[in-house]
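Exercise 7b. Backbone tokens:
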């Protein structure tokens, strides 16, 4: 966001406008800072007083005040952990909303990707003039969309009120 004011030592500029430039900037920051990184697998977390203990698969553990889970974006999607999720008709990301402009479509999730997919498919259906009643559903385990951007939540609510998307909450 261009209007965002960043507080702290890690600053960004207009030159960080592409993924490649941002990646190079972050590599430079890491090289100049006391940041250590390694590829490890976290097995579990446990609350320990006011801290969180992070257990690594090699038996080591780390103690932290806060843990940031950054398990993927863009290139690394989270897969649905359910029987049948490996079916050819189940996809983990939306490449072309127009490919889903007809037929029954179910989207599972409640984050930005899920809402943005529902909004894009609803738009493609409007352009294709095919909006079958109940043909586009979004299934979310929560009751409110707390992880998604507010503008996406507002757009989804409008589509839901218009009957273009059916939202199944607490499912």
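Sequence design result:
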């Amino acid at each position: 966001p261009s209007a965002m004011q960043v507080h702290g030592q890690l600053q960004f500029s207009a030159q960080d406008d592409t993924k490649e430039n941002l990646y190079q900037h972050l590599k430079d920051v890491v090289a100049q800072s006391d940041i250590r990184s390694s590829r490890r697998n976290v097995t579990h977390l446990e609350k320990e007083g006011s801290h969180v203990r992070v257990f690594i698969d090699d038996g080591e553990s780390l103690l932290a005040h806060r843990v940031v889970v950054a398990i993927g974006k863009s290139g690394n999607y989270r897969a649905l952990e359910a029987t049948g999720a490996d079916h050819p008709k189940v996809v983990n990301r939306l490449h072309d909303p127009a490919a889903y402009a007809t037929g029954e479509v179910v989207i599972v999730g409640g984050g930005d990707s899920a809402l943005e997919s529902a909004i894009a498919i609803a738009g493609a259906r409007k352009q294709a003039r095919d909006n079958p009643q109940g043909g586009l559903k979004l299934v979310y385990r929560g009751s409110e969309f707390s992880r998604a951007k507010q503008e996406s939540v507002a757009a989804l609510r409008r589509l839901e009120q218009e009957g273009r998307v059916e939202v199944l909450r607490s499912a």
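Instructor comment: The beta strands are 42-48, 51-56, 61-64, 105-108, 136-139, 166-168. The first strand starts at residue 42 and ends at 48.
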